[in-house]
Write a structure and sequence with these properties.
It is built from four helices and 17 strands. The protein has 319 residues and is mostly beta strands.
Length: 319
């Protein structure tokens, strides 16, 4: 299992040459990864806990894959299992999903925003995945269209969360939610959970698609997808990329630490292009010039406040 490493994950997708294509030409998709799969280090007779900036992201006494981020600091703790009740081996990740619902959107990426927590639980020897726990916390809705929300999981299993985001996630609020700075913050949302269970030994940790989590919205009969892990099926290219050659959605780690300072991703407010809110940083990430999206220095008037993001996000990692 030590050779497992190298299955790359990416809360994201990406493109070299955005806005530079010719009609009928598909962009070369270039993965910009925020996470990669690594193998949890184990010491004989001890249980390992991996923490990302203080939040537990994996725990096991056998080797398992876990989500290793490019941003943030991962530390490891070891303890004797008799001191603390043993848990089933698990690994977890958290990401903010930001969608554009139109085929030629305004690139503010706030038509629907949510936090998605994914927790993989393994069998006792760490060779197979027993279940995938999905938690979705609605954050904002800046679009007026009727949206559904689903998450496709390995082995073609689908978690259908809602056919009406506004009704089921935002309690039927008819106005934009948390995308206008002159409107009080709306916080009457709850976390929605589903668990995908796999039969014994059906989903191996070494499977090529075992970490392919594919969230998407439905709008006017279309599916709009976000690349989180794995590669984009070419046949479904237009479900990930709009007619302008731009990603329909983004998957962004909610928090990172740079030089011992915590930064939270702060999404653009209504009608603010993300390239305006994050000059250079966003485009460098999409173009592959930067290995990750450095969201530490936005134009503050154009994005949600950090205090509001902390309120909206709640606990950052599935425990």
């Amino acid at each position: 299992m030590k050779k497992l490493i190298l299955l790359l994950l990416a809360p994201l997708f990406l493109f070299s040459c955005i806005d530079k294509t010719t009609e009928g030409t598909q962009y070369d998709l270039k993965k910009i990864t925020s996470f990669e799969i690594r193998t949890l280090p184990i010491q004989e007779g001890l249980t390992t806990i991996a923490k990302l900036d203080g939040d537990t992201i994996a725990e096991s006494d056998v080797e398992i894959p876990y989500f290793y981020p490019k941003n943030g600091e991962v530390t490891f703790e070891y303890y004797t299992p008799t001191i603390k009740a043993a848990k089933a081996p698990f690994s977890a990740m958290s990401t903010i999903l930001c969608f554009e619902d139109l085929e030629n959107g305004d690139d503010d990426y706030n038509d629907f925003i949510c936090k998605m927590d994914v927790k993989y639980t393994y069998n006792s020897n760490g060779k197979y995945i027993n279940n995938i726990e999905l938690k979705v916390l609605p954050i904002a809705q800046g679009g007026s269209l009727d949206l559904g929300f689903n998450i496709s999981c390995p082995l073609a299993k689908n978690a259908s969360f809602t056919t009406n985001v506004r009704q089921d996630f935002f309690n039927g609020v008819t106005t934009f939610v948390n995308t206008q700075s002159n409107i009080p913050l709306y916080t009457n949302m709850v976390t929605h959970s589903q668990t995908i269970t796999y039969s014994s030994n059906s989903l191996s940790v070494t499977g090529s698609n075992s970490y392919l989590i594919d969230p998407y919205i439905t709008v006017d009969g279309r599916e709009v997808h976000v690349v989180v892990t794995g590669t984009i099926p070419t046949i479904r290219y237009n479900q990930y990329v709009n007619i302008l050659g731009r990603p329909y959605g983004l998957a962004i780690p909610p928090k990172t630490r740079i030089s011992n300072v915590y930064y939270y991703f702060r999404y653009p407010m209504e009608k603010i292009n993300i390239r305006t809110a994050y000059p250079n940083a966003f485009q460098n990430w999409i173009d592959g010039i930067a290995t990750s999206f450095n969201y530490s220095n936005p134009v503050s008037d154009d994005v949600q406040t950090q205090a509001n993001m902390i309120t909206l996000l709640g606990a950052l990692i599935t425990k």
